[in-house]
Amino acid sequence: MNSRLKGFESYLKNQKRSSQNTIDSYMRDVGKFVASEPFNRINDPGEVSEEQLEEYFASLSEAGKSAATVTRSIASVKCFFSYLVEQGDIERNPVKSVPSPKVTRKLPQILSSEDVDRLLSQPRTDDAKGCRDKAMLELIYATGIKVSELIMLNVNDINISVGFLKINGTDHSRIIPVYPVAVAAIKNYLLNARPSLVSNPVEKSLFVNVGGSRMTRQGFWKIIKHYQELAGIDKDITPQTLRHSFAAHLLENGADLRSIQEMLGHVDISSTQVYAQVITSKLRDVYNRYHPRA
Questions:
Q1: Considering the entire predicted model, what is its pTM?
Q2: pLDDT tens sequence across 171-204
Q3: Domain with 240 in it: what CATH number?
Q4: Domain identity same for 124 and 251
């Protein structure tokens, strides 16, 4: 089975061209599946039945796993068996007819404009760390990029003179405008902070930690939590919260869904349409709260 798992990982990377996060998730789900009873005793994957698979996925639910987690596990194992079919290892995919649990999609949490202003005003720009933090927070809210994209930015990905950011994706690149306040924060960081943080003169990372290495996801997470506490904001703020707020605020102020989809890098417009639901829900709450006959 180990050789099949290695082949599956290579298939995800080289043929499916999946992101590293997707590869990690699929390999983790499939790894748990093949290590579980009774599948850890089955040498021929063609012997696995639909009934056994349904029992396995039902056991995940019984163990308290969310519908979203079970659905992802089904997708991972289904992809694994599709790979085995493609390799000629088995004749049919037994996961094909296994139903996925119904997932209730939660509306994303959005910060108010006032909360965003309070958060972004927290970093002190009289030292290198605060200067960097200000630039990172401004940029992620200005562009709605993912935290993984933020930390992978290099210095040449931002065009200060014209106010544009380039994101190099797996399938295609996208260009996102950057508002002047964020441009000014990044320019200040590049001129007055980054040189004192970077120890290696050939370091290309845009944002670095105090040791001069590329900023990590965990490092930026701690930065957000620190300034959330300073701002006295009760909501749980994550990098994804700022991404959601970017999209919702654009839509609220008249931007069209297609433009937001392009800036966010969504492949499917349905992923972007959730923000329209957020705005509708917000309007309904306001109506119910303030209309005298509501």
A1: 0.64
A2: 678 899 999 999 999 999 999 999 999 988 899 9
A3: 1.10.443.10
A4: yes
